[in-house]
Specification:
- The longest helix has 23 residues, at about 1-25.
- The chain is of the alpha/beta class.
- It has helices spanning about 1-25, 70-85, 100-110, 125-135, 160-170, 190-205, 220-235, 250-260, 290-300, 340-355; strands at about 60-65, 90-95, 115-120, 140, 150-155, 180-185, 210-215, 240, 265-270, 280-290, 310-315, 320.
- The chain starts with a helix and ends in a 14-residue tail after the last helix.
- The protein is about 40% helix and about 20% strand.
- The chain contains ten helices and twelve strands.
- The strands form two sheets. A six-stranded parallel sheet has the order 2-1-3-4-5-11, sandwiched between helices. A six-stranded mixed sheet has the order 7-6-8-9-10-12, with helices on both faces.
- β8 (about 240), α8 (about 250-260) and β9 form a beta-alpha-beta unit.
- Keywords: Cell membrane, Lipoprotein, Membrane, Signal.
- This is Basic membrane lipoprotein Med, substrate-binding protein (PBP1-ABC) superfamily.
Length: about 375
């Protein structure tokens, strides 16, 4: 009898302990419902370009000798920067003469480069031929329109940018009756500069007149000097420097010399910021941002959207700009000749163009 009672008490004690432990434990989560048979698991998300593995990709940049040429350095530094972000391989090839554009473009293809970017109009013709020969290579050109639609061509909307520049100059020089322009060749390409600038000036000064001269060269500095002195003698106080970033040096020297004679003229830089305290007569300029163009080309290539044919980029894409207007800083600001109201007027017009509220299109020169 005692054994039975002891056994019963033991069972009761064991049952109590088990119950106590079970009450302290967290309840088990209910099993997840099974997905309906008709549904399938979603595929993993495609990684962003910055997360993808591009270590196998090879990008080549081909240009004139780089040196301190900002037009090329912008593109060079952008490739370098994007390679650091995305991990692709890259190289830079410089051309000391015209023949080397084709030679370097071919060498890049033979060395396994996937994307070849040429900075400069010299790349357009040789890359057009190479694109047919090397179907597996994507060729791109900045600052020219290639004849082969397999090549990605990045051109600039010079007209709208020069219109903004014209507004700024017209506001800064409101009482002028004659504005000058010294360009390289008389072509539709240079006409877009002329037209945009003159229309911008006339939007502020409707009675403005213009004087044009062409050097038929991208490198001659003597004719720009001569034409600058002639246009100043004719009554122009402002002369648009449209020859080339380097050949404009003739205009800049003429401005310094004329100032010493007491008959100053003012002018602009081309493609890059050429304002400098050493020459306060360079008071603005048109800009070509090859860095932005390079970034667009590489980004589109990485995400698989880069196609052949032409892309015309301008203010909206930060590809073509104006010193003091589309830049936060400048090498130099001549506050006496470039007042704040001139810069603000130009910024207001640039904002309208970017927003699509104002469109400036140059007609064919023969139709004007």
């Amino acid at each position: 009898m005692k054994k039975s009672r002891f056994f019963a008490l033991s069972l009761l004690l064991v049952f109590s302990i088990v119950t106590l432990v079970s009450g302290c434990a967290s309840p088990a989560s209910p099993p997840a419902p099974e997905a309906p048979a008709a549904e399938t698991a979603a595929p993993p998300a495609t990684p962003a370009a910055s997360e993808a593995d591009f270590s196998h990709l090879k990008v080549a940049l081909i240009s004139d000798p780089i040196g301190t040429e900002q037009f090329i350095l912008q593109a060079y530094h952008k490739v370098e920067e994007m390679a650091g972000i995305h991990g692709f391989q890259w190289t830079s090839m410089e051309c000391s003469d015209t023949a080397q554009w084709e030679e370097n473009g071919r060498a890049a293809a033979n060395e396994g480069y996937d994307l070849v970017i040429g900075v400069g109009w010299q790349a357009a013709e040789p890359f057009s031929a190479l694109a047919d020969e090397f179907d597996h290579v994507h060729y791109a050109v900045i600052d020219a329109i290639a004849g082969n639609d397999k090549v990605t061509s990045i051109g600039f909307n010079e007209t709208e940018g020069c219109y903004v520049l014209g507004v700024m100059i017209g506001t800064a020089f409101p009482d002028e009756t004659l504005y000058g322009y010294v360009g390289s060749f008389q072509t539709q390409a240079t006409y877009k500069y002329r037209y945009g600038f003159s229309e911008g000036v006339k939007s502020v000064n409707p009675d403005a007149e213009f004087m044009y001269n062409y050097t038929n060269s991208y490198s001659d500095t003597s004719l720009p000097y001569e034409y600058t002195t002639q246009q100043q003698a004719a009554g122009a106080t402002f002369i648009f420097g449209g020859v080339a970033a380097s050949a404009n040096a003739g205009i800049y020297q003429a401005a310094l010399d004329l100032a010493q004679r007491g008959t100053p003229v003012y002018t602009t830089g081309l493609s890059v910021d050429q304002t400098t305290p050493d020459n306060p007569y360079i008071i603005g300029g048109a800009l070509k941002n090859t860095g932005s163009c390079t970034e667009i080309i590489i980004s589109q290539y990485l995400d698989g959207t880069l196609s052949g044919g032409a892309q015309i980029l301008g203010l909206k894409e930060n590809a073509f700009g104006v010193v003091h207007v589309t830049t936060d800083t400048a090498n130099y600001l001549n506050e006496e000749m470039m007042p704040p109201e001139a810069i603000e007027a130009a910024k207001a017009v640039a904002a309208k163009i970017i927003a699509g509220e104002l469109e400036i299109i140059a007609p064919e020169e023969s139709a004007n």
